[in-house]
Design goal:
alpha/beta
Length: about 375
């Protein structure tokens, strides 16, 4: 590692706080819900323009339905020169118009706005770290991957993430740092499902006995699904959305529910999904039928010996600039699980710190932007040449 390079990178990043805030404001004030391809792509254009101006090579991976992928490279990776991968997603959970209703603002050292922490600040951080190495040189190849649909389990981005992770020697995912300042070393996996039930309609007053209620069947199935929760094993089931029926005076001909499964151990996934499938196939109310559809899923971020070493390296680098950082496990899911499943040492939530994601109160601690960027830059340098 070059001490001169290290000094130049750290000093340059130290002077970039206002520029980071300015870029963050631009990104937050663009609606970019997962299904808003135009908005997600507009965020990508802003990032691409910054990176190209900084001297990075950028490639757009076209997608007809979701936002395009964006891949930035510094140096040419190959089998002998495996890159370090910096990841982040451009989509948010918020509906169209949210950025106009709640534009970027700063109060008391915190920034607010849709996606300010989860994870547009992480995108800004990655971009400025890449720009620093483009300006002063890098010990080895770097890849910045800016994906488009993480909030809905990355249906179009998963294959791209897995492709990049297979050839990466280390992966840093810039999800927001925890309010404690910690990073994430392990995450649950998640499966998101929809259950649809068919009954038979009938007038609830005139010929009630001819009806078969899909809502009654739904209620019984929901209780059975929830009963699969096993907190000791870290397995939770939550039916978070239900709908059904036609009118108050009609026996319900249809009903549906959306199910969230979270688990810790990879082998638990198939066991619980099989139990849910059996419940869905079982008719508690005679005459009803049902089917199950998997809408999307994440794999767990499972710590490995290599990822533990990466965590220790990061903690040591952060300590050099005065940060005390620990590791946390979380029930939330992220793209880092896909990367880790490819065998790449992976560390998550190394972005600037914030909290209350997915809510109107989401916030970012602005004073963490530069130090977290410096900790990432030092970690890249500490990894050394490939």
């Amino acid at each position: 590692m070059s001490t001169t390079l290290e000094t130049k990178v750290l000093e340059w990043l130290d002077g970039q706080k206002q520029a980071m805030i300015d870029q963050l404001r631009v990104l937050v004030d663009i609606d970019s819900g997962s299904y808003d391809k135009e908005g997600v792509d507009q965020v990508g254009v802003q990032i691409r323009n910054f990176l190209v101006d900084a001297g990075l090579n950028c490639e757009t991976i076209a997608n007809p339905r979701f936002g395009d992928g964006l891949r930035a490279t510094l140096g040419e990776p190959d089998e002998q020169r495996r890159p370090i991968l910096l990841m982040g997603h451009r989509d948010t959970v918020f509906p169209e118009g949210e950025a106009q209703r709640r534009p970027f603002r700063i109060e008391g050292g915190r920034a607010y706005g849709p996606g300010v922490a989860d994870m547009k600040a992480g995108l800004v951080m990655n971009s400025f770290v890449l720009a620093a190495f483009a300006r002063f040189g890098a010990a080895g190849p770097l890849v910045g991957l800016y994906t488009s649909d993480e909030e809905i389990a990355s249906p179009s981005s998963r294959a791209l993430i897995e492709q990049e992770a297979r050839r990466a020697r280390a992966v840093f995912n810039a999800e927001p740092g925890r309010p404690s300042g910690n990073v994430v070393t392990g995450r649950k996996g998640g499966v998101f499902m929809r259950m649809e039930i068919q009954g038979v309609p009938a007038h609830s007053g005139v010929n009630f006995e001819q009806g078969i209620s899909a809502i009654e069947e739904l209620a019984l199935k929901v209780s059975a699904v929830h009963a699969l929760t096993d907190l000791a094993r870290g397995i939770t089931l939550n039916v978070g959305v239900v709908s059904g029926g036609m009118s108050v005076n009609t026996v319900a001909p249809h009903a549906s529910a959306e199910i969230d499964l979270r688990y810790v151990e990879p082998q638990d996934r198939d066991e619980i999904v099989a139990k849910i499938e059996k419940l869905v196939a079982t008719s508690f109310v005679n005459g009803t039928t049902a089917n199950l559809q998997i809408l999307g899923e994440f794999v767990p971020l499972v710590p490995s010996e290599a990822s533990r070493r990466l965590f220790e390296l990061y903690v040591g680098c952060a300590h050099r600039i005065g940060l005390t950082i620990g590791g946390e496990f979380t029930g939330g899911c992220a793209d880092s699980g896909f990367a880790a499943a490819m065998g790449a040492p992976t560390l998550c939530a190394i972005g600037p710190c914030g909290g209350k994601a997915h809510s109107p109160d989401e916030y970012l601690e602005l004073d963490t932007m530069v130090p977290r960027a410096q900790a990432l830059a030092l970690s890249i340098l500490a990894l050394g040449p490939p």
